[in-house]
Each structure stands twice: as structure tokens, then as C-alpha cells.
Amino acid sequence: MRLMLLLAMMFVMFGCGKPHVTPVPDPVPDPNPVPTTSVAKAVLAGINAYPGAPLSGCINDVLEAKAFLLAEGFKEENIILLTDQAATRKAIMEKLEWLVKDAKTGDLRYFHFSGHGTEFAGRDLDKQPDGLNQVICPYDFNWTADTMIMDVDFVDVFKKMPDGVIFNWASDSCHSGDLTRLIPKPNEKIRQYPNIPPDVKQQIEKARKANLKRRGFVGGLLDVGFISGCRYDQTSADAYINGKNCGAMTHFLFESLKANRNNPLTSLVADMNNRLMANGYDQQPQAKGARVSKPFLK
Fold first, then answer.
1. Catalytic: which of 58, 112, 137, 174?
2. Which of 22, 150, 227, 238 has its CA 20 to 30 A from that of 281?
């Protein structure tokens, strides 16, 4: 009897006869999950290999953007990367249409462009220009209207998106109003498309002298947020930072986002400007559009 009692006590004390189960820790929640009911899509275009006007950091820019979005919950198959020869005007416009197609309230959308930019007032010297268009330069850009993407083109595409879509885009390119070329630092270039044809330059100067209104990449009250690489009268640097070619604006955009992802765009861009200034860059990115008071992906 005593033996049976002793065995029973050992059974209780040491759990004899019960399999050992290692407790499974609770899963760590994603701190920035994409809502399961939303669809997140992005188009990222970066061009280094411009014929006659190459850059160095644009492809690294869009790879950094892709890595950030994947970490935020975007799916690989919903991120389209267009680089160098693939980033023609036709291809970029087609992918922008894909970006807005079927978008619904609560979905996430992002477009990032890294490359050359300029302003354009038309080539018809017999007509007075009616304003200055901000322009990004696809791979096949050659100073003709059908090889550039103007501010009005972006507005035409983005206005198809319904309200309530969480949509931001950024252009790490030059929108230089006076078309001056700043002296770059060693290992840097300027993302202002060079070699402006004389007739284009004449039209731009005519528009400036007439003090004509500059159009913008964000038109009216479109429900989008936009971050520019600099002011309209500045240039954007194709830089070399921490041993890597990149756009100065793109580098500090994602550096700021990683530190302040919940800040509204206005605060985010203010932080970017502080970081750029602290590292010797004069360019001043701008936040524009109806979403400037909202966080980047919220």
C-alpha cells in the first residue's frame, strides 16, 4: 500500500505518464500590416541608361522603394519594376493605368519615379505658351511631347481613382523653373535633362517672362499625395551616399519613413529637408496634394 501511495505521489510531482509539450509562443504581430481587405499595388520606374545623358542611382532608388514596400506588406506580384529600356513613355503610362484599374476605397497605391525631369512649354514658336508643364523623362525622351509624361497626363490617369484610395507618389527628378545647372559634388550628377533645344528653351523663357502659371504634378483636389525631389526652381542630385549611388531625395525619403512612418507627409518632408540640409544638399522636397496631412500608407 505504501509503495502504491509513493508511486502516486511521484506521478503527481513529476508528471509521470504525460508527454512533455514545449509551449508555443504567441506570434509577433506585424507592426505595419496591409489590411487584409485592401489591395496594395505599386509601379516603380528608374532610369540610368538615358542615351547621351546617363545617371547612376535611379535603379538603386526603385530597388530601395521595392524593399520598403515588401517590408510594409505589399506582395511581390503587385509591384511592377520598370528600369532603363523598359521604362518608355508607353510602358509607364500602361502600368499607371494598371495601377488605378479596379482600385477601391481602402486600397493602397504607390508610384515612384527616379530619373531626369524638366519643364516644357511647347515647340510651336508661332504661338504664345499658355503655361509651363512639369515633365518626367522616360527612357525614350527626345524633347517631343509624345515622348514625355507631363503633369496633365498624370492628372488624367489619377483622376480615375475613386476617393478613399490611399495613394501617394514621388518623383526624384528635377522640375527646374530657371533651368540652371547647379555644380554637383564629386561623384554626383543633376537630374535635369541636359542639352535643351534652342526653340524649347526660347518657349520656356517666353513663358517665364510672361509670368505664366506653372502647372503641377498634382492637379486640383485629387485625393493623392505627392512628394517632389525639390522645388520647381531647383535640381535634384544623383548622389553617392554610404558607398552607393542613389537619388539624394529617395535616400532620405526612405530613411525618414523608417524613422517616422506614422507622420503626415508634411512632417515627413520637413524631416527629409532637415536630413538633406545636414548632409550638404540644397534641394528642398515638397509635399503637395490632398493627402499631405495624412501618413504615407494610412
1. 174
2. 150
| Residue-by-residue DSSP string for the chain | -HHHHHHHHHHHHH-TTS---PPPPPPPPPSSPPPTTS-EEEEEEE----TTS--SSHHHHHHHHHHHHHHTT--GGGEEEEEGGG--HHHHHHHHHHHHTT--TT-EEEEEEES-EEEE--S-TTS----BEEEE--TT--SSGGGSEEHHHHHHHHTTSPTT-EEEEEEES---SS-----PPTT-EE-B-----HHHHHHHHHHHHTTPPBP-SS-TT-S-EEEESS-TTS--EEEEETTEEEEHHHHHHHHHHHHHTTSBHHHHHHHHHHHHHHTT------EEETTTTSBTT-
- Residue 28 included in any domain: no
251 catalytic per annotation:
no
In a domain, 12, yes or no: no
The answer as to whether 22 is a domain residue is no
User: Sorting pLDDT into bands at 50, 70 and 90, what band is 214?
Assistant: low
86 in a structural domain: yes
Quick check: 186 pLDDT over 70? no
Report the predicted TM-score, pTM, of the whole model to 2 decimal places. Answer: 0.80
Which domain, by its residues, includes 199? 36-289
Q: pLDDT tens, 136-157?
A: 999 999 998 899 998 888 888 9
Look at the chain and report how many structural domains it folds into. 1
User: Is 16 a catalytic site residue?
Assistant: no
